[in-house]
## 1
Amino acid sequence: MKSLGIIGGLGPMATAYLLQLIIEMTDAKTDQEHLDVIVFDRPSVPDRTSYILDPEKPSPLPSMQQTARTLEQLGAGCLCVPCVTSHYFYRELAGSVSIPFLNMLTETAQELKAAGRRKAGILATTGTVSTGLFQTALEACGLESAVPGSYGQNLVMSLIYDEIKAGRPADPEKFEAVSRELQLSGCDSLILGCTELSLIKKNTPLGHGYLDALEVLAKRCVQACGAPLKTEYSVLFT
């Protein structure tokens, strides 16, 4: 099996949860049947959304590239970064190493297509939404997409930054309000397209039709590194 390298800390709790998901999804009977994982936790990396919205702010790219190269040098055979917004820099990141670099957005779009979904609502940071990262990945798979209006997007950002990143519980009313907006626009599935939002699903039962991009990444990490996947994770939708 290949060793997995994780560019972590973006944010810290999401990184810890990804590692937990990888362990839970691996069909292992002994310690030795689990993946070797190298986590480089770097919460000091500048905020991705801040830079995307204002390029005068510090760029996170140099730190992420340095981390990717370090993980490769340490023996990682496959890389990932559990931060959706960081995929704005995916081409430069993947190009900085010579080993495979998993793309959360592409993998999530393919998971939706394989499940026969047609239109996905995107719950993500303003940086992710404004650059069309998920919209482009979904369109490449022949899928439609929708994003919240300005009020709904403000609710999403408040959930991510004012609550989850700040170490506070997410307000379920905010989450339900923006979910309802997207469902009423005809979405047959809703993407948890920020790894902080994945923590809502971890701690709170959700309704039907949600797909967690972090769970998709964990599943692909197990598969890409050659470990067996537990059958109950073959379908990830709520």
## 2
Amino acid sequence: MNTFALEIWYDEGRICTLYTVRWVTDDDDTASETDRFFDTYTIPEHPLKEKALQLFRLITESIGNRYGATNDFFDRIVNRAQELPPKPKQRVEEIKDLGINFPLRLFCYRVTENIVILFNGGIKESQATQDSKNLSMMFYEAQTFVKKIEEALRSEMIEISNDGRYLQNFDGTTDIIL
């Protein structure tokens, strides 16, 4: 059975803690899914490097530090997971700046306005995310992650910390393996 760890990816923002998932393997150096996404699209020669950096800033600065995980950022729901960036019709200036045909999608799951779990993503090549060759496997994995996370939250195997910013196991420990 495939297991994964929930790990803090970015918690330096004032409002929102961003988590990621990392497959648990025999290799302790396995990169998180979110790191794999940004490592792919931010290499110097990648044609979408600037777009990936725009998305990075939207996530860390706008969601993490300025607004939190409000509905403005989470309007692309695909089954159980959400996609970033949001649709550009929102009132938030940073979202409008991304434009209507933003080429990248990053799957995620908003737990609360203070906790978001980021997964992996890719290039959106067709009208429906699931029909994009580049995104179909990431879409499937995101759904699997969300299902396990929702089950763990529902069964109280993991819970939200008292301050509302972190996830923890039912016993208060923070090494979360699902």
## 3
Amino acid sequence: MPQGQPENVPNDGLTTRQRRTRPLVVVHTGPGKGKSTAAFGLALRAWNQGWPIGVFQFVKSAKWRVGEEAALRALGEIGPPVTWHKMGDGWSWIRKSDDDHAANAREGWAQIKRDLAAETYRLLVLDEFTYPIKWGWIPVEDVIETLRERPGSQHVVITGRDAHPDLVAFADLVTEMTKVRHPMDAGQKGQRGIEW
């Protein structure tokens, strides 16, 4: 894309401005690090544009305090609102708990559907949302149909490994994070300020 020029212009009847401001579905997937980090960076850009932000975390525990949450919540106090929802128990695929993870995920998705219908946010970050889809807790067909029919100009970012092929085919922008090397390969656990 030299000098910001698209490689082709579709014959869709839209003006350049209409095409440029069309709401997007973005998917960050793959085995590499940085999927959520990229989504939160995008949320910072959206906040700077004056957009209300909704973050829905589907796997990370409500007990975890991550830097992105602290920063975005603080920004939400001085500018456009930032709302943060956690539906996970933390690493729910390896931990046993009394929580019904599937029910929590379905309730989280029901809340997202309500917020999309109400146009509560201009940007929604659905962090680790590929997992409840992969595990069959939330039907990918429902996700795609809901996102296709969402009103207004709401952008949606979905993160997580193993994004469903139908979701990848539907999304407007898909980035696959590929791991080349990670300190965990050499036995080093995640560290403060890098992983959280």
